[in-house]
């Protein structure tokens, strides 16, 4: 679009915007449209004829559009917050406009002039559907890239965010109109960049962000045509696809005739990778071809001819991407299927020689073709289908009366081969009603998946945020489902929908979304562990599954692999294999093939893929097949070692899993820790190098560094190769059940309590020379990955020390509480004895801190050498008296940690020494040469002395320190909070908390964060995960007033979305703080959704709804239920209630007539009901539900609970 020739460039700064009422017709109801009608006049039509044909000036202006911000308006009522509350600052001076539409979708007004942002559709196909990934931006027609499985299979090429903002309007979906209204003609390209200095000619463009769909709308006052484009992925299908539904509405007062070309400007045929497109895209076009296009142009199929690999074996490619398009009209040739539209695969027919794809020169008209082309012309022209990147446009022509609409739908997807597309997919996609039905299914899918955390309070936006948060949490950690259920046995737990959090902004991660049923992709250990933290609270049948899995991944040295891969199933008994197979397929070749498949390790989705590809006809429904095979199979976790070091903090998330298990099953503590089947040790090819192999002289100035901290000994590789060759090994050389053996090659296993003690002892042994922080001795830092240089500087961190303090306390008190012996591997027993001896010397004054540190590390290295390949298999029993807290070694270790924490707090810069340091680095002061590092050519040294230095403040230190104050008076906890709030960690402008204070003056060696400007990424920004973690610890500490004050400023659903730049239902990784030099960026969120914030908020939500531990034991050791919700007075609805799903299933209604803070009231009664037909609900007076009713609640025998509050006694 061009503005009139006299138009000036827009002034700097935000432009005034007046919003009209949202058109309720978009919601699918019959509500009348708002009164707005753009004028129709000869002048209007004259301007329309000058619609954007992007020339050099307009193209250059696209970059500046990304910097424009729009002043928006937020309705305070929608937040449910009091008029004088934190949302009052969001009132708009020009009146309120809706933040959400009637379907609960967030409305981003004038989206292409707002702050640039990216996000994505969830990529969930349902349990029985094949997913498609799709990322969008608020530029052009939004959809920036989509495809199958990973970046390498992009149908629209994957782009990183900064490129997507630029190219999406051109290379993505396009709408091109030639129109006639009366005797006037005009041309238009809805959603293309425009110069917007004339409000009379500037279209209104809004984006509607739903949980499982995205819609954009343009209402053009010049053309008087409204264009809506809706995107969603159809669930519950055997193929992945993206639906684009474009609706044209005549907003004028007379008829308009439209020639429409709509679709994808560039489509990458299947078989070409992201790297190939990036590095040799022009060459790759030689392999590109459009199939099924000779006789008809309605069902093209896109893939490379052959694999482009330069090898002797040439592989034909059969898989491909497909495109279909049709008008959703009542009339059709056969009455049952929509008539298909022709697809234009040759860009030149539309754009001519304009390779920028800015101006549809051939369609609109140019010097060579003054009249342009009509849709009829396009249908008759021959198309080039090879040796260039194809397009996928649909073309149609129609007339709209005033107020009339017409919808064109395009479905772009992937099929295993052309025959599958033509025979199985095309007929159902083309069927009338299919698109509407699939949209309803997509909406219902996310409603169903988030039902486990449904909530109804006075704060509607918070209710919706909880559900979106739960969905996003599952996309990173997986959503637990039961399978293989059999009477009397614990069901198998399978986590679907997980993937590593790669997207347009997190371009460094290679996400994988498996194109299978029950899709599950690999994820990072830290992410998956913490995002599964609350599983058992939402699905009690999860039980101790997560505890056992993540402790299984703990190695002999207390570290773990980076990646949690998709779990396997394996039926070990050959007789069972034959029995199960006989129930799946009839005798013959099909039965033999099924037997072959079940003899191998399988994953649920892949099993169905293999059955389908083999052409096996099943005798039972697929649901029954899944239950049958998983019932008799053993579920085997799989790990993947893909790293060059071990992270300091990974062990810290395991205790959260234990605590939440015990919050539901406190009566099963001893059984889980001592009596459950023992668990193995993950065996990776890497080990931590001994000090004299990794401590080296880095330069001629005497600077000693800790490099090459992890090695891969040949002995470990030999052992792994031997494992891979075993007949019962589950996995492959990349990921699998790599469990450590004994010398007789048996898998070595121990009880969970033994693993807990092993973890504690290993981590205690790597406390720094002053006994304060846990050393970064394995080449990687802790939670803050951007401190990547600190391990080389002999760094240590207090957050892991605080978590170790709590894990040690749990282990020690549990040993005393249970009072039973704990069997430890003999190698660990020897290490523990050495620690005991060195602690005695230190306590008696016969040793210095450094001598103690040196001796314990020597003992640790001896232990690591002994367990590098094998455990001996011998166990040593430690009595509770010798091991526990009261009289044993764990108690003395705990006291040593208390001393270390006190010493660390002495480095706190505040007057009261309340704001704990987070990091220390140690400068080597004396050393002696001992060897030579052949890899680096540097001499190695034995360190003889250190000098510590505390780094600037980070929020993580005081946050995790609060955990250790669980038994401290409330005032002591409040003092820490107050000190943090008064420190330089608090961003006074944003009223939020920064991940660190200023790092100016720190060496670049500390890590990559030093390369970032202050306020950006991990350098002094508001890192939302850590902010949320801080809020959570305030809640756990009982600082309820402070907690609610902070979350109403720092939790996404309470933020100003115009400032945040995103939907207030979707979190981000970081917010640009006021330390950043570009003031317009302050408060903007970056890196969307899939972050640790979701785990922290779920923990907050569960705590708010039910208390920290809803199930406890009474004085007699019997199970009881005692809900202790933390609900602020402003959360109660008008009818004095708040409701939520308890244990993901039971509808709980809290009733508080006083609408007071819940912690200022007491629960006076419970009413338990099994449903509407229950004529005798159970009423229990008091604040506690005793046994056996408590057990019945946990067993989900009740459907509803009414819990009534009264005055605090």
Pick out its properties:
six-stranded mixed beta sheet; 1209 residues; single chain; disordered N terminus; nine-stranded antiparallel beta sheet; globular
Question: What does this 3D model show about the protein?
Answer:
The structure is a single chain. This protein is an alpha+beta fold and 1209 residues long. Strand 45 and strand 46 form a beta hairpin. Helix 31 (1024-1036) packs parallel to helix 34 (1093-1106).
Please give a quick description of this structure.
The chain has 1209 residues and is of the alpha+beta class.
Structural class by SSE content = alpha+beta
Total number of beta strands: 47
- Mean of residue pLDDT values: 91
User: Per the principal axes of the C-alpha atoms, what is the gross shape?
Assistant: globular
């Amino acid at each position: 679009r061009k503005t009139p020739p006299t138009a000036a460039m827009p002034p700097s700064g935000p432009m005034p915007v007046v919003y009209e009422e949202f058109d309720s017709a978009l919601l699918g109801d019959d509500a009348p449209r708002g009164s707005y009608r753009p004028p129709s006049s000869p002048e209007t039509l004259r301007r329309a004829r000058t619609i954007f044909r992007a020339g050099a000036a307009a193209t250059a202006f696209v970059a500046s559009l990304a910097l424009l911000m729009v002043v928006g308006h937020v309705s305070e009522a929608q937040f449910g917050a009091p008029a004088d509350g934190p949302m009052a600052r969001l009132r708009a001076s020009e009146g309120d406009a809706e933040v959400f539409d009637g379907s609960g979708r967030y409305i981003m007004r004038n989206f292409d002039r707002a702050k640039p942002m990216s996000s994505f559709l969830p990529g969930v196909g349902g349990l029985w559907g094949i997913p498609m990934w799709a990322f969008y931006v608020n530029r052009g027609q939004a959809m920036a890239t989509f495809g199958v499985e990973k970046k390498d299979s992009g149908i629209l090429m994957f782009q990183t965010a900064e490129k997507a903002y630029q190219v999406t309007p051109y290379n993505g979906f396009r709408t091109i109109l030639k129109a006639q209204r009366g005797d006037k003609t005009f041309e238009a390209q809805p959603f293309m960049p425009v110069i917007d200095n004339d409000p009379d000619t500037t279209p209104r463009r809004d984006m509607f962000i739903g949980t499982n769909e995205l819609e954009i709308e343009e209402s053009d006052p010049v053309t008087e045509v409204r264009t809506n484009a809706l995107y969603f992925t159809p669930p519950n299908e055997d193929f992945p696809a993206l639906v684009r539904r474009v609706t044209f509405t005549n907003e004028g007062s007379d008829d308009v005739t439209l020639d429409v070309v709509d679709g994808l400007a560039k489509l990458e045929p299947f078989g070409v990778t992201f790297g190939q497109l990036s590095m040799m895209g022009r060459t790759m076009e030689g392999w590109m071809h459009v199939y099924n296009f000779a006789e008809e142009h309605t069902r093209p199929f896109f893939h490379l001819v052959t694999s482009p690999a330069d090898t002797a074996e040439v592989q034909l490619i059969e898989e491909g991407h497909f495109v279909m398009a049709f008008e959703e009209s009542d009339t059709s040739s056969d009455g049952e299927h929509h008539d298909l539209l022709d697809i234009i695969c040759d860009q030149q027919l539309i754009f001519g020689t304009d390779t920028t794809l800015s101006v549809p020169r051939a369609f609109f008209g140019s010097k060579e073709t003054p009249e342009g082309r009509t849709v009829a012309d396009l249908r008759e022209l021959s198309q080039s289908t090879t040796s260039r990147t194809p397009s996928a446009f649909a073309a149609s022509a129609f007339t709209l009366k005033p107020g009339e609409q017409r919808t064109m739908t395009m479905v772009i997807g992937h099929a295993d081969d052309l025959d599958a597309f033509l025979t199985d997919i095309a007929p159902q996609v083309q069927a009338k009603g299919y698109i509407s039905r699939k949209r309803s299914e997509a909406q219902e899918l996310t409603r169903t998946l988030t039902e486990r955390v449904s909530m109804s309070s006075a704060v509607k936006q918070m209710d919706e945020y909880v559900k979106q948060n739960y969905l996003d949490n599952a996309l990173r950690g997986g959503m637990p489902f039961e399978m293989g259920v059999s009477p009397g046995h614990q069901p198998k737990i399978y986590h679907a929908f997980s993937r590593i959090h790669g997207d347009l902004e997190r371009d460094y991660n290679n996400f994988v979304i498996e194109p299978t049923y029950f899709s599950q992709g690999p994820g990072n250990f830290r992410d998956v562990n913490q995002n599964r933290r609350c599983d058992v609270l939402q699905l009690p049948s999860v039980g101790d599954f997560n505890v056992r899995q993540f402790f299984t991944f703990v190695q002999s040295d207390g570290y773990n692999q980076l990646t949690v891969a998709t779990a396997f199933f394996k039926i070990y008994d050959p007789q069972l294999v034959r029995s199960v197979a006989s129930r799946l397929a009839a005798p013959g070749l099909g039965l033999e093939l099924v037997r072959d498949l079940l003899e191998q390790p399988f994953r649920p989705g892949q099993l169905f893929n293999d059955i389908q590809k083999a052409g096996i006809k099943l005798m039972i429904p697929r649901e029954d097949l899944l239950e049958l095979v998983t019932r008799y199979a053993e579920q085997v976790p799989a790990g993947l070692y893909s790293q060059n070091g071990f992270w300091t903090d990974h062990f810290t998330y395991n205790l959260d899993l234990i605590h939440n298990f015990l919050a539901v099953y406190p009566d099963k503590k001893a059984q889980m820790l001592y009596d459950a089947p023992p668990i193995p040790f993950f065996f990776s090819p890497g080990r931590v190098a001994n000090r004299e192999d990794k401590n080296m002289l880095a330069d001629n100035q005497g600077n000693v560094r800790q490099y090459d901290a992890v090695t891969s000994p040949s002995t470990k590789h030999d052992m792994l190769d031997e494992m891979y060759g075993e007949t019962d090994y589950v996995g492959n050389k990349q990921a699998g059940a790599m469990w450590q053996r004994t010398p007789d090659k048996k898998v070595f296993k121990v009880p969970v309590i033994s693993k807990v003690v092993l973890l504690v002892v290993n981590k205690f042994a790597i406390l720094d020379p002053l006994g304060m922080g846990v050393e970064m001795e394995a080449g990687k830092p802790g939670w803050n990955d951007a401190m990547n240089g600190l391990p080389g500087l002999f760094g240590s961190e207090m957050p892991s020390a605080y978590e170790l303090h709590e894990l040690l306390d749990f282990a020690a008190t549990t040993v005393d509480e249970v009072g039973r012996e704990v069997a430890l591997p003999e190698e660990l027993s020897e290490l523990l004895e050495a620690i005991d001896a060195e602690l005695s010397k230190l306590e008696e004054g016969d040793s210095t801190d450094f001598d103690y540190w040196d001796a314990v590390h020597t003992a640790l290295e001896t232990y690591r050498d002994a367990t590098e390949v094998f455990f001996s298999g011998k166990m040593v029993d430690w009595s509770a008296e010798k091991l526990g807290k009261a009289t044993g070694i764990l108690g003395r270790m705990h006291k040593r940690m208390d001393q270390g924490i006190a010493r660390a707090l002495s480095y706190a810069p505040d007057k009261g020494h309340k704001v704990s340091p987070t990091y220390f680095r140690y400068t080597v002061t004396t050393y002696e040469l001992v060897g030579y590092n052949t890899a680096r050519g540097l001499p190695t040294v034995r360190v003889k002395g250190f000098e510590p230095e505390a780094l600037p403040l980070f929020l993580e230190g005081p946050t995790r320190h609060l955990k250790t104050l669980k038994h401290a008076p409330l005032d002591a906890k409040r003092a820490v909070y107050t000190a943090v709030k008064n420190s330089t960690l608090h961003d006074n402008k944003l009223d939020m908390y920064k991940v660190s204070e200023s790092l100016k003056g720190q060496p670049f060696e500390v890590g990559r964060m030093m390369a970032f400007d202050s306020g950006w990424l991990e350098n002094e920004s508001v890192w939302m995960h850590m902010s949320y973690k801080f809020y959570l610890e305030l809640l756990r500490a009982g600082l309820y007033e402070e907690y609610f004050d902070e979350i109403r400023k720092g939790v996404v659903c309470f933020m100003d979305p115009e400032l945040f730049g995103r939907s207030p239902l979707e979190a981000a990784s970081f917010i640009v703080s006021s330390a950043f030099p570009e003031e317009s960026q302050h408060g903007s969120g970056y890196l969307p959704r899939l972050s640790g914030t979701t785990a922290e908020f779920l923990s907050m939500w569960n705590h708010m709804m039910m208390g920290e531990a809803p199930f406890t034991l009474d004085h007699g050791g019997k199970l009881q239920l005692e809900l202790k919700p933390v609900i602020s007075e402003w959360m109660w609805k008008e009818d004095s209630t708040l409701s939520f799903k308890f244990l993901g299933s039971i509808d709980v209604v809290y009733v508080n007539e006083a609408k007071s803070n819940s912690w200022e009231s007491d629960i006076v009664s419970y009413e338990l009901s099994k449903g509407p037909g229950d004529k005798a609900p159970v009423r229990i007076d008091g604040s506690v539900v005793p046994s056996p009713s408590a057990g019945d609640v946990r067993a989900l025998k009740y459907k509803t609970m009414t819990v009534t509050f009264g005055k605090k006694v």
